[in-house]
Specification:
By secondary structure, this protein is mainly α. 72% of the residues lie in helices and 0% in strands. InterPro entries: EamA_dom, TPT_transporter.
């Protein structure tokens, strides 16, 4: 669903000069050996082999940044919301991220950087998708605050079957029969993890609360609606993902900033530990890297490569969440994790 301008590193083959070889038996047209060797060493010819290497290097760097920043922001946000001062500040955190994202994209669109060309859409027309974006991000933050990292990330896998269901209901787009078995396997695995991860344990109560399950499932529903609308807005207004997000982020931030006085109570600055403020700053920086790197990956390598990298990030986050959990993971949950990941991979 990315319709982007031509990615950097594109090489125009017409710029490469070609060596003229004279016909045999024409001594006056024959090139001296020195000139012939010089033309073979023409940098315009050799550069064609260097461009793909440069593009591959940039793609690898952005991929590493995307994986590190995505994994880092999940655990950073979990640490922030584990603090009592920020446990109920999900709206503020989402508004902060939208402000950072909007500012980053605005800077990237400036002529000095020219990462993409901005295209603006009427505020009223953008309001619905901006509101959907804000709601699904807040629900994700609530899910992360009341759930384990492992369950939160696995629940996000339900986005795929939910989008398929919505596309069928709204646009009669049928799901291929070959995809039904993997989707059933995925949903069954998530259901198993949901049940066993929400059971009370002897040491610290339930890892994932009932509210955590509710927030996770409603976040999936909201994200599915938002994902379907993204495709609609791409086609209707002919926007690339960067252009669409540049229009959305400031409006989403404004909506959440208006809601903060009614939904949250500001903590006393003196009671917040300094390390939490450092994590908040880090969270904003990671959000910038996540957005910019994700766009570059999909623009440069396509949606399929983006999905594969997404699978890698899911495995890393689930694995780290499992390793760092402070309670034993039941064998049934392990089975559910494997079923969900195998189903999503298939």
């Amino acid at each position: 669903m990315i319709y982007s301008p031509q990615s950097p590193g594109h090489h125009n083959d017409e710029e490469c000069g070609s060596t003229h070889f004279p016909s045999a038996g024409d001594p006056e047209e024959t090139l001296p050996m020195e000139k012939y060797n010089a033309e073979l060493k023409d940098p315009g010819v050799d550069d064609t082999n260097e461009v793909p290497l440069s593009r591959n290097s940039r793609f690898l760097i952005w991929t590493i940044l995307n994986v590190i920043s995505t994994v880092g922001i999940v655990f950073t946000n979990k640490a922030i919301m584990s603090d009592l001062s920020f446990r109920n500040r999900q709206i503020s955190l989402a508004a902060y991220h939208f402000c950072i994202t909007g500012a980053t994209l605005w800077i990237a669109s400036l002529r000095f950087f020219s990462v993409f060309t901005p295209k603006y859409v009427n505020l009223v027309q953008m309001a619905p998708i901006a509101a959907a974006m804000a709601i699904q991000v807040v629900l994700q933050n609530l899910s992360l605050a009341h759930s384990s990292v492992m369950f939160h990330q696995l629940a996000r896998l339900l986005l795929t079957p939910m989008v398929g269901l919505l596309n069928y209901i709204l646009y009669r787009v049928k799901i291929p029969r070959a995809a039904l078995v993997p989707l059933v396997l995925l949903c069954s695995g998530v259901a198993i993890v949901t049940y066993y991860d929400s059971l009370p344990t002897a040491d610290n109560g339930s890892t994932t609360s009932t509210w955590g399950v509710i927030f996770a499932l409603t976040a999936v529903c909201a994200s599915s609606i938002y994902t379907v609308w993204i495709g609609f807005y791409h086609k209707r207004f002919e926007l690339s993902s960067m252009q669409l997000l540049l229009n959305q982020a400031p409006i989403s931030a404004g909506i959440l900033l208006c809601a903060i006085p009614w939904a949250e109570t500001s903590p006393s600055v003196s009671t917040v530990p300094s390390n939490i403020w450092s994590l908040v700053l880090l969270s904003g920086i990671l959000a910038c890297f996540v957005n910019l790197s994700q766009f570059y990956i999909v623009d440069a390598a396509g949606a399929v490569s983006g999905a594969v990298i997404g699978q890698l990030k899911t495995c890393i986050i689930v694995g780290l969440g499992w390793a760092w959990s402070n309670h034993p993971v039941p064998c049934e949950s392990v089975l559910g994790i494997m079923m969900a990941l195998i189903g999503m991979s298939m």
